[in-house]
Amino acid sequence: xxxxxxxxxxxxxxxxxxxxxxxxxxxxxxxxxxxxxxxxxxxxxxxxxxxxxxxxxxxxxxxxxxxxxxxxxxxxxxxxxxxxxxxxxxxxxxxxxxxxxxxxxxxxxxxxxxxxxxxxxxxxxxxxxxxxxxxxxxxxxxxxxxxxxxxxxxxxxxxxxxxxxxxxxxxxxxxxxxxxxxxxxxxxxxxxxxxxxxxxxxxxxxxxxxxxxxxxxxxxxxxxxxxxxxxxxxxxxxxxxxxxxxxxxxxxxxxxxxxxxxxxxxxxxxxxx
Length: 273
Hints:
With 273 residues, this protein is α/β, with parallel strands linked by helices. 41% of the residues lie in helices and 19% in strands.
């Protein structure tokens, strides 16, 4: 059986929809409309997820971030090891490492624990999700502290496509996969492409890290989180997220979606922001 956590999110829903013909179970916090059977379970009670696992199962480990994220995921990994699962596929982030900023640090702790667990694994390390771009456009502007360097984005559905391929083929002992979209662009160019699809100007406004942190605080973000996020943008824009890989096509046999494809498909989502 393939057990999916985070099934209510973009990746989880897309993955569940790709696994027709397989024995699939989604672990969800509340009753949900999903294309597969589900059971109620919660990362805040790791034992409820562990109770769903049996020898030979495959597990997708995926959830949004919260203060208890790393501890809960480590606990689920330990329970998966005790259950004798055949593979854990986890959705991490590019550049994850213990001690890193925000999600990069939390994912880094989980990834390190998974590698040492003895469970066959695949760690998916995607760049930024294209699905986050609509929320960044407000009144014809996109703010950031990325600088002029190119940054990569990937469609989250391509991450689901990779996960589906790995969860339905023989598992290797352990592997890391940096997943990218087909091209990396400066945010100025990304804003221009968004504007071209919307038929109205969209401008990228690049701010120094302290000013970007203040901008995020004015939007209601807590000060420590805003400071870290602004600094993370600057780090992301320094070139470390500029290179692309062929992992998506190598694993799935199909290239990842382009930014233009995504923008055209999600035009109405942008138009309402």
